[in-house]
Design goal:
623 residues, alpha/beta, ABC transporter transmembrane region fold, Rossmann fold, 6-stranded mixed β-sheet, 4-stranded antiparallel β-sheet, 62% helix
Length: 623
């Protein structure tokens, strides 16, 4: 039950709207019931003998109190007086009954209008809650997604995360709406109806109260099963998103390997699995309401039999008019029970979505800012790796890096080389704190990275990776990415240094040209030069180049390498390279193997050592 109403935590900050929604739902409930019960006394008076009406009207006005009997007596007195106001003969009483009928019809019309007005106002103030919670949840999930470390995404499917941020958040919206109605509107309607039934006939109402819990037990049983199915369905739906995301991102490879049928078959298999789960969910959802309705109608028919028997007995315990009114009010219990059934099932689906959302919202942040961080204004001396070891999984015996000790002096160019899997990229990725060391520490100017804020650390870094990551935006915005108040002149200056200005000027809209999805409208060399221009504009003191030219043709590599040489001037650079010809001028070359530094020195020294570096260099030279 606690989990059932856990979605309430999301409406924090919307309690003003929620209070108004509750208020108008309460008014709606009262008017729903009273618009019907108002007819009961009139029906009774309508069928009374004229002598009885005269007797009612001649009585002293009863005192009005909160009890149902006093309200009933007072209404009988007022209506009798109204009917007999023109006289007590048969003709005038008939005229009075007709006027009373008009009065009742107008009154019920007004009450029904008020009921629907309050229903609309309740929904009017619910709208900001529903949409506001969805907005806030998406903002929180996006913020958390940006805060989570890269290691988190190595274990998660991007499509599943997208599914949680879209469809699961939408389920929370419905769950909140249904929860508010489940707690405040529908139960209140039932309570008010039961109170009115008790005031008319406690005996009949006892049977209603004894039999209705059967419907509640059935609803709870179906809802529990529904939650389990919903969790499975959403997991499969996340897999569907993942396949779509992977397919759209790899269309060139898929078409090149004529794998369209394979991907289509894979997608259809998962889609069929989702279809089966969804059919089961809909069937369970659709089953609950008919079952509860059948049970409630069975109860009402039993009540009709008992009440009809009491009226036909003629003992005066229950009049025909009172029984008609009783049955009319009792029938009003059916819609709220059906609504509670639907709401309960939607809430169960919402709870399943909430559990998936919270896996992201409450995922641990392994890389966090220090509680009392030290601010480093700029890079002035050196970077130090001290006994750094790293494993991607905590407790993993197989370390990717083992006891690395490395000093990078300001203004120096350090190159990392070695076979794939030797730990080069991991070593470089630890500098901007994409990962933290499992053992040891990394320092900038004597300050541990863990004692600095992530923002402070990354402001000192500029990265140009092998894969040029561009956004579906203009060239200008891609170069100025992450920076504010950047002028066109500054962007052009950075592009000129990166050897990108010439080709940008030849595009249809120049710097306002859209680069397409992930830069699809540009060549590899053009994308890389825009990435370099972005790094130049940021103007960081420390530069990390992760195989920035390895995916380019010879001509593009030469142009990009010239741009990189311009970028590295007067900067401290860490270069990851497979093409050793690009790092022969590095101040120090670090040769790595299986997570360890096996050789270090400049190009000439390493060639003279005739070790691993010379073998690698000779192999590339021979090629």
């Amino acid at each position: 039950m606690k989990k059932l109403f856990s979605v309430f935590k999301y409406i924090k900050g919307y309690w003003g709207y929620a209070s108004l929604n509750i208020l108008f739902n309460i008014l709606f409930s009262f008017f729903s019931v009273f618009s019907i019960t108002l007819v009961i006394p009139f029906l009774d008076l309508l069928f009374q003998q004229n002598e009885k009406l005269i007797e009612y009207s001649l009585k002293a006005a009863p005192k009005l109190s909160l009890s149902a009997s006093s309200v009933s007596d007072y209404f009988y007195y007022r209506m009798s007086s109204f009917i007999t106001q023109h006289g007590t003969d048969a003709a005038n009483i008939s005229k009075g009954k007709l006027e009373a009928l008009i009065f009742i019809c107008i009154s019920v019309t007004i009450l029904i209008f008020c009921k629907n007005l309050f229903r609309y106002l309740a929904m009017y103030f619910l709208a900001p809650i529903r949409n506001g919670v969805v907005r806030d949840l998406r903002n929180k999930m996006m913020k958390k997604s940006l805060e989570l470390p890269l290691s988190y995404y190595s274990d998660e499917r991007k499509g599943d995360i997208i599914s949680r941020m879209t469809t699961d958040v939408q389920e929370i919206e419905w769950s909140i709406m249904q929860t508010l109605e489940l707690i405040f509107r529908e139960p209140l309607l039932i309570i008010i109806s039961v109170v009115m039934l008790l005031s008319i006939s406690p005996y009949l109402t006892l049977y209603v109260l004894l039999l209705l819990p059967i419907a509640g037990a059935i609803v709870a049983l179906v809802g529990k099963s529904l939650k389990r199915s919903a969790i499975k369905s959403k997991a499969v739906y996340g897999t569907l998103f993942s396949i779509m995301e992977e397919t759209l991102g790899a269309l060139k490879v898929i078409k090149a390997f004529t794998a369209e049928k394979f991907l289509q078959r894979k997608y259809e298999d998962v889609n069929q699995q989702h279809y089966k789960l969804s059919v089961g969910i809909y069937r369970k959802t659709d089953l609950a309401s008919p079952i509860s309705e059948s049970v409630v109608v069975g109860v009402l028919m039993f009540v009709m039999f008992l009440g009809g028997s009491m009226v036909l007995s003629g003992d005066g315990v229950l009049t025909a008019a009172a029984f008609m009114g009783y049955f009319a009010v009792a029938s009003q219990i059916l819609p709220p029970i059906k609504q509670i059934t639907t709401a309960y099932n939607n809430i169960q689906k919402g709870v399943a979505s909430e559990e998936r959302i919270e896996k992201i919202l409450f995922a641990p942040l392994e890389i966090m800012d220090a509680t009392q961080p030290v601010h480093v204004g700029g890079f002035t001396n050196k970077i130090e790796y001290k006994n750094v070891s790293f494993a991607y999984t905590k407790g993993d015996a197989g370390h990717v890096l083992k006891k690395i000790n490395l000093t990078i002096e300001k203004g120096k160019t350090i190159a990392l080389v070695g076979q794939s899997g030797s730990g080069k990229t991991t070593l470089a990725d630890m500098l901007p704190r994409f990962y933290d060391p499992s053992e040891g520490e990394i320092l900038i100017d004597g300050v541990s990275l863990k004692n600095m804020t992530l923002k402070n650390v990354r402001e000192l870094m500029g990265i140009v990776s092998q894969e040029s990551i561009l956004f579906n935006d203009s060239i200008h915005n891609n170069i100025a990415f992450g920076l504010e108040n950047v002028s066109r002149e500054q962007v052009i200056a950075a592009a000129k240094i990166a050897n990108a200005h010439e080709f940008i000027s030849q595009t249809p809209e120049g710097y306002d040209s859209n680069v397409g999805d992930r830069g699809s409208k540009l060549s590899g060399g053009q994308k890389q030069r825009i990435s370099i221009a972005r790094a130049i504009l940021k103007n960081p003191p420390v530069l990390i180049l992760d195989e920035a030219t390895s995916a380019l043709d010879t001509e593009s590599e030469r142009i990009v390498q010239d741009a990189l040489n311009s970028l590295m001037q007067n900067r401290t650079s860490v270069i990851i390279a497979h093409r050793l010809s690009t790092i022969v001028h590095a101040d120090e070359i670090i040769v790595m193997q299986q997570g360890e530094i096996i050789e270090r020195g400049n190009h000439q020294q390493l060639l003279a050592n005739k070790g691993t570096y010379k073998k690698l260099y000779d192999m590339q030279s021979f090629k």
